Amino acid sequence: MITTNDVAKVFDTVLSSPGMSELVKIDLKISRKNVLLLNHVIMRGLTLENDDSGLLGSLSKDDLSELRNLSEECLQKAGLVELNQKLATLSEA
């Protein structure tokens, strides 16, 4: 049986392999609905950053910050920043 430590080692190996830090350009066209959903999934995953059993647990603070910035940039490009903030306040209540 594979342990959580083994999983973390595999993720760390994959993320540190040559070329993984290179920037890639992705031309992506998705609906605003999917931008909101993608942002929600990313932000929810980032709340699990202290979970050492998965991929996000093995990322550095810089990598997590970059992922958060990507999510925010997608919202901004789709013109959904204000809507997302209002939805977040609704879900908090």
Short key terms for the protein model shown above:
0% strand, mainly alpha, 93 residues
Describe, in plain words, how this protein is organized in 3D.
With 93 residues, the protein is mostly helical. The mean pLDDT is 86. The longest helix is centred in the last third of the chain and has 18 residues. The chain has one domain. The chain is 61% helix and 0% strand.
Task: Give the topology, please.
Blueprint: H1 4-15, H2 32-46, H3 61-78, H4 81-92
Helix pairs in contact: 2-3
Number of helices: 4
- Proportion in β-strands: under 5%
In total, the number of domains comes to 1
Shape: globular
The residue-averaged pLDDT reads 86
Helix content: 55-70%
Uncertain spans: none
What is the subunit arrangement here?
A: single chain
Radius of gyration: 16 Å
Termini separation comes to 42 Å
Q: Report the major sheet.
A: none
